[in-house]
Design a protein that fits this description.
heterodimer, A: 453 residues, alpha/beta, Aspartate Aminotransferase, domain 1, Aspartate Aminotransferase, domain 2, 7-stranded mixed β-sheet, 4-stranded antiparallel β-sheet, 14 helices, B: 530 residues, 2 domains, 3-stranded antiparallel β-sheet, 16 helices, globular, disordered N terminus
Chain lengths: 453, 530
């Protein structure tokens, strides 16, 4: 087998060495003698035998070929994962052995490469969000959101979170699940359609730990979080600001300037492909004063014995491997390689490139909104948006999206897929546009939509 | 001159000594030392006006931002593409990696990461599909999840699998949630509040149990490295929700009483959570389902070779017994006449009569890791995977047998996939486990796991994995024997100042924690963007 270096001769020689110190060991079976007899598998499990590289490629390529790749059609799906162009340099660099096949940097003297990019990543996330500090990533935006709510409880010693109806429905479900099991109370507002204001402020009371608001909202609308932050702070609660499209931070007011105490979001848009939903990279930032309540790994600057600058994992007394049942989180693995892809992509973009790319995204979405809004029967619900917005169609959007597939267009997400059973949502379609979409794509989409309606 | 590299032997001992004295004292102008290159932070390379992408400004348009335009500079550095390339290539060279050498971190399973897996994960049909595309456009992706699920269930002898957990600890959380959901379904959610965890457990186990409100009760470990079964039984009671046990355990040993332990916890009305971090030792040879396990996460980045990537991403599917199968989270897969389908919402679950407990994460899990793990499984097949466990166990036992007379091993008998040593052999030498590990760095090895498990003093946990050759192990063994002898001979300088030859000497971790500097800060205020 190509991944196994031992030969039968090696195995025999090694068993000889082992047997000399361990009486009774003459075979590999003897090494498994502590396994109860009843549990020893004598036969192979009922699965196919080994395959050469070519056969594995054939098997997997056949499965891949059954999927419609985003690149092959006009593509307008968003809702928390976005298709962007990733420069070739990114994928080359993240496949370097030293990054790809390294472990968590527990031995800092020989993992300064990982540690330094994590330090750069933390700086970038803090800058984008307008916050003071960021950690070295969470699994993704939704799990980061759940951790942020738990952190707010640690900070405020209160156990009631209020989730705005602006929040992505699957983020909401992930938070409700985690908080529910943790024994905390979650009050979730109904989904806040664009153009409708929700009265979240009147719900904030002295028992409230945090208010969770997403901007741009799940429906694409930009939300004024400042008034919510002020109201939360007046009651001693925290504002958790969420985003699912990190690209928006190149163009819109960062949550740190709108009074957020914790900011969490999805970083997939920078450097990471769609991957059918994962792996992604959760971004997590907060105020300096809360840093010891943060979950996840943190990288910090220090010096070595010769006085040279270097980096280490730090404040690990928050973490499970030191604190065990008293840790701030059970998290261990983060999204290391996805952070690296994020960091390299953002380094290539730089200040001007990132801001320009955000403007291009917005421009494309504005253009698409113009085209789709002109289709008879289609109404754009958003007053404001970045690169994603919501349409009301004259009929149920699920059938429309299926009909668009028949015309080789992936035309967004029927809101009813995520919020089923609500008459208000039945005809809504969530549509995203990025730098990828050409004028031709947008025109094809508009024409196809007109046909299927 | 015994430490001299054979290929680089100098012409005479005299010049070698001079060379060494020179290199020890001479500082270069750049701070670089040949191939060992210093690299500033990317912010210190900022070259305003440079850019690593070529993008045209969009034509004039009417923004629809509702007055939320970002004002002021973000503060990102500006670099051209070659400068970005060089920065990250230089950073990469400061890292040790499994591709470059033995990485014997116990409990971490640093095995070879085949590049075929990377190639397959990048097929556009997997990498370039969106989690919320219509399901009829991602049938191949869903089918891959279904096939991978089938393999995981066959290999573990379990009845169901929850695919969505993002990493091992997330899988633990998922498994413990399933246990709570099952207890609640039979009206014992509130009364069963205690979880038993051996003192040798990974830190994630007690952290996970505590995260969802369980009281953690530690079980002692016996002098043979196994759970004290009698002490465990004495702790059982009507308030016990579960036991969380790693098997093979963190001492690298198989818990020989495991069937009895499982029966006892079931008898007491609790469930058996197995930490599957060490599944690599038994894959294809033992099925956790046959041991009485109710839930176990599988670290795809350990047993199934997906790359660790400097600390992630992982993937932690959880296999479940028949008793827990109805209590998996959403989304989950169902088989229909048209093939596998994903059930995503509570409404859809209600329609098909199942009782999932909720959602661990947005979307469906770590597809990119599924493809890599499945490519690895297909490559090995049933016969190859059994050989994986056998060679992993053989390699670890070879290391144990070859070192136990020079180092000190706390436990008798064969080990599983990792060899555990303690620090008795260093007693009186002035060298501690940490120093010993740092000296290994100078010898070109990544150190083993240190000071874990906690039940052994000065623990050194060595997991070679099955992808190391006998030659590699022989050199590693010879190196460790040489280091042990040096320590005993009081050759302290090899240890206390180590590492001497890494990109950095020992770093001040205490100072880093006392005064946390967690980001770069500009020394002058940022310029406001035009």
């Amino acid at each position: 087998m190509r991944y196994l270096p031992l030969t039968d001769n090696d195995r025999r020689d090694m068993l000889g060495v082992i047997g000399a110190t361990l009486p009774g060991v003459t075979s590999v079976d003897d090494l498994f003698r502590d396994v109860p007899k009843a549990a020893r598998l004598e036969a192979l499990v009922d699965l196919p035998r080994r395959k050469g590289e070519l056969d594995v490629e054939r098997h997997l390529s056949a499965l891949a070929a059954k999927n419609v790749a985003a690149d092959s059609v006009p593509f307008f799906v968003g809702g928390g994962a976005y298709r962007h162009h990733v420069p070739a340099t990114v994928d080359h660099l993240i496949q370097r052995s030293e990054f790809l096949t390294s472990y968590t940097p527990y031995q800092p003297e020989i993992t300064q490469g990982t540690l330094q990019y994590l330090f750069e990543f933390q700086t970038m996330v803090a800058q984008l969000t307008g916050m003071e500090v960021a950690n070295a990533s969470m699994y993704d935006g939704s799990t980061g959101c759940g951790e942020a709510v738990l952190m707010a409880h640690r900070v405020t010693k209160r156990r009631k979170a209020i989730l705005s109806g602006t929040l992505h429905p699957q983020y909401r479900e992930a938070v409700e699940n985690l908080s529910g099991f943790a024994g905390d109370k979650v009050v979730s507002l109904p989904s806040a359609l664009p153009g409708k204001t929700e009265d979240i402020i009147s719900l904030i009371d002295d028992a409230t730990s945090c208010v969770v608001v997403q901007c741009p909202s799940f429906f694409g609308e930009l939300i004024d979080m400042r008034v919510i932050a002020d109201a939360a702070h007046a009651k001693g609660a925290l504002l958790i600001a969420v985003f699912t499209e990190v690209m928006s931070l190149g163009l819109i007011t960062p949550p740190g300037e709108m009074g957020a105490d914790i900011v969490v979001g999805e970083g997939q848009s920078l450097g990471n492909p769609l991957n059918f939903g994962g792996p992604y990279v959760g971004l997590f930032a907060t105020r300096q004063k809360y840093v010891r309540q943060m979950p996840g790994r943190l990288c910090g600057e220090t010096v070595d014995a010769a006085g040279k600058r270097g980096y280490v994992l730090t404040l690990s007394t928050r973490e499970q491997h030191i604190r065990r049942e008293k840790a701030t989180s059970n998290i261990c693995t983060n999204s290391g390689l996805c952070c690296l892809a994020f960091t390299i992509h953002l380094a290539l973009l730089g200040e001007e490139g990132f801001r320009r790319l955000a403007r291009i995204n917005h421009a494309h979405a504005v253009q698409l909104a113009g085209l789709l809004g002109a289709v008879p029967g289609v109404e754009i619900l958003n007053g404001s948006f970045f690169n994603e917005f919501t349409l009301r169609l004259p009929k149920p959007s699920a059938g429309v999206v299926d009909a668009l597939v028949g015309k080789n267009v992936l035309g967004g997400i029927p809101v009813s897929r995520l919020i089923p059973g609500h008459a208000d949502a039945e005809n809504l379609l969530l549509v995203a546009s990025t730098e990828i979409n050409t004028d031709q794509d947008c025109e094809t989409f508009a024409a196809a939509l007109a046909e299927v309606l | 001159m015994s430490g001299m590299n054979r290929q680089g032997r100098p012409s005479s001992i005299e010049t070698a000594v001079n060379d060494i004295e020179f290199s020890a004292t001479h500082e270069t102008f750049t701070g670089n030392r040949g191939l060992r290159l210093e690299e500033p932070l990317i912010y210190e390379l900022d070259n305003p006006g440079a850019c690593g992408v070529d993008l045209d400004e969009p034509d004039a348009f009417e923004p629809r931002l509702g007055g939320f335009e970002r004002k002021g500079a973000i503060g990102l550095a500006s670099l051209s593409e070659p400068d970005v390339m060089r920065h990250f290539v230089r950073l990469s060279r400061k890292n040790y990696s499994i591709d470059a050498g033995l990485y014997p971190l116990g409990s971490c399973t640093m095995k070879h990461n085949p590049r075929l897996n990377e190639k397959m994960a990048r097929l556009p049909g997997f990498a370039d599909v969106h989690p919320l595309q219509p399901q009829q456009t991602v049938e191949g992706a869903i089918e891959l999840m279904a096939q991978l699920s089938h393999w995981l269930m066959e290999l573990t002898g379990m009845q169901a699998v929850a695919m969505s957990p993002k990493a091992g600890a997330h899988g633990e959380l998922c498994g413990m949630m399933a246990i709570r959901a099952a207890l609640e379904a039979r009206g014992e959610g509130a009364s069963r509040t205690r979880v038993l965890v051996p003192e040798s457990a990974h830190g994630t186990n007690p952290a996970t149990a505590a995260l969802i409100g369980y009281k953690v009760d530690e079980i002692p470990v016996k002098s043979n490295g196994r759970v004290d079964t009698e002490a465990f039984k004495a702790k059982l009671g009507p308030d016990v929700a579960a036991i969380m046990l790693t098997n093979p355990n963190t001492c690298g040993l198989f818990e020989s009483d495991i069937i009895e332990i499982a029966a006892a916890v079931h008898e007491a009305g609790g469930y058996f959570y197995c930490d599957g971090a060490n599944f690599n030792a038994i894959v294809g040879r033992v099925r956790p389902g046959d041991l009485g396990v109710d839930a176990m996460h599988i670290n795809l980045h350990k047993t199934f070779s997906t790359p660790h990537g400097g600390g992630g991403p992982g993937a932690g599917p959880v296999v479940l017994s028949a008793a827990l199968a109805p209590f998996a989270p959403r989304p989950y897969l169902v088989q229909t006449e048209e093939g596998a389908r994903l059930i995503e919402t509570a409404e859809a679950s209600a329609a098909d009569g199942t009782t999932p407990f909720g959602r661990m994460t947005a979307f469906h899990g770590q597809m990119g890791m599924y493809v890599r793990a499945f490519a690895y499984m297909l490559s090995h097949g049933s016969n190859g995977l059994r050989q994986v466990a056998e060679d992993a166990v053989l390699n670890a036992n070879y290391v144990l047998a070859s070192l136990r007379d020079e180092l000190s091993a706390p436990f008798e008998g064969p080990c599983m996939h990792e060899a555990l040593f303690d620090d008795r052999f260093l007693k009186g030498t002035g060298v501690e486990t940490l120093d010993f590990a740092k000296a290994m760095i100078d010898e070109g090895y990544h150190p083993m796991t240190m000071y874990f498990p906690l039940v052994v003093h000065g623990a050194m946990l060595i997991e070679p994995t099955e992808t190391e050759s006998k030659q590699t192990l022989d050199q590693f063994i010879a190196t460790l024997r040489d280091l042990a002898r040096a320590a005993k001979a009081n050759d302290i300088s090899r240890f206390t100042g180590a590492p001497h030859y890494a990109p950095r000497h020992r770093l001040d971790e205490t100072g880093a924690a006392r005064n946390p500097v967690l980001r770069w800060q500009p020394t002058v205020p940022l310029k406001v963007a035009e």
